[in-house]
Amino acid sequence: MTVRSDRPQGLGRGLAALIPQRSSTTTGSVEIPLARIRENPRQPRLRIDDTSLEGLAASIREHGVLQPILVTETIDGYQLVAGERRVRASRLAGLERIPALVRQLAGRQQLELALVENLQREDLDPIEAARGYRQLIDEFAFTQEDLATRVGRARSTVANTLRLLDLHQAVQDAVADRRITEGHARALGGLDTAGQARVLDTVIGEDLSVRQTEELVRRLREPREPREASVPAAAPDPDVERVEEDLRQSLGTKVRLTRTRRGGRIVIEFYGDDELARIYQRLVGGSA
After folding, report:
1. Does residue 43 sit in the same domain as residue 119?
2. Helix, strand or coil for residue 14?
3. Is 84 one of the catalytic residues?
4. Which of 48, 110, 144, 195 has the highest Cβ tally under 10 A?
5. In the chain, how many domains are there?
């Protein structure tokens, strides 16, 4: 897969605006030896799919590298800043040289540009993005507002992504492996870390939607009714059973009546919006 150089820039100001420019005579790309390029130690992306890499290598064999990589010059060669997939695919394709933009960049700029480029191509999973954000915060004193501006995201989006790093490691791994979505992970964040790991198996095993996961977490978090609030019943009360049965017949759903010292409560169950609307009409004689 090749990357079109004329695609719209969807994040912030785009890479071009973030890269420090030299004079007009040196702004273009140059061909540099692949053998002299070292990997980027601040690369936020940890996983590269072998199949997609082979596809990109095949495209490079046929069309060449359509977009230059970004490097910074070192004493003994070049350090890669952005374009790791293109470098790896070019080596697979048997190339010896690759077009590159050579810039002098500080460590903060290297991480920032690598992060922005991968986000623009949607190459990072949410956990990789969160780790990149955290590195910018911890190493270079970025605020969440700074990050939001630089990567073209809402501050709330950046904050929610960072919260993924507080989840149980099993949940983080499931997000990175795309077994669950970021929405599932945020829902599981409503539980303590031990509970997150237990419920994760259910979410994956039963293929729950995000909404179903949120409902499951809500039910698990509901405090149980204190036992002392209810009058212990040694035997079923026939009058209570009769009232419950009459209500079940009238409403067409499960109804539970509980007596307490101060009165009691009636619990009417429903299993979807349509059933709720039907019960509402039975009770009040109108539409919900």
Report:
1. yes
2. helix
3. yes
4. 110
5. 3
pTM greater than 0.85: no
Count CA within 13 A, CB hemisphere, residue 215: 7
Contact by Cβ (8 Å): 213, 181: no
- Shared domain for 174 and 268, answered yes or no, is no
Residue 275 resides in a domain: yes
Assess whether 23 and 81 both reside in one domain: yes
- In terms of domains, do 204 and 269 share one? no
* Residue 18 and residue 92 in one domain: yes
Among 40-44, 67-71, 205-209, the minimum mean pLDDT is found in 40-44
C-alpha dihedral, 63 to 64 to 68 to 72, nearest 10°: 160
Highest mean pLDDT pick, 27-31, 63-67, 160-164: 160-164
Q: Tell me whether residue 231 is in a domain.
A: no
Q: Mean pLDDT throughout 96-104?
A: 86
Position 18 scores a pLDDT of 46
Give CA–CA dist 111/132, Å, rounded: 8
CB 279 within 8 A of CB 267: no
Tell me the pLDDT tens digit for each residue of 233-284.
446 677 778 887 778 767 767 778 887 777 788 888 776 676 677 778 778 8
- Domain of 74 in residue numbering reads as 14-123+142-155
Nearest residue to 243 (alpha-carbon basis) of 263, 261, 258: 258
The closest alpha carbon to 126, from 82, 181, 189, belongs to 181
Mean pLDDT of 216-222: 80
Residue 231: DSSP 8-state: -
- Alpha helices by DSSP H, listed for the chain, are 14-18, 50-63, 84-92, 107-120, 126-140, 144-151, 155-163, 169-176, 182-188, 193-205, 210-221, 238-251, 273-284
Same domain, 94 and 22: yes
**Whole-number pLDDT of residue 17:** 45
pLDDT given at position 123: 64
Residue 131, domain member (yes or no): no
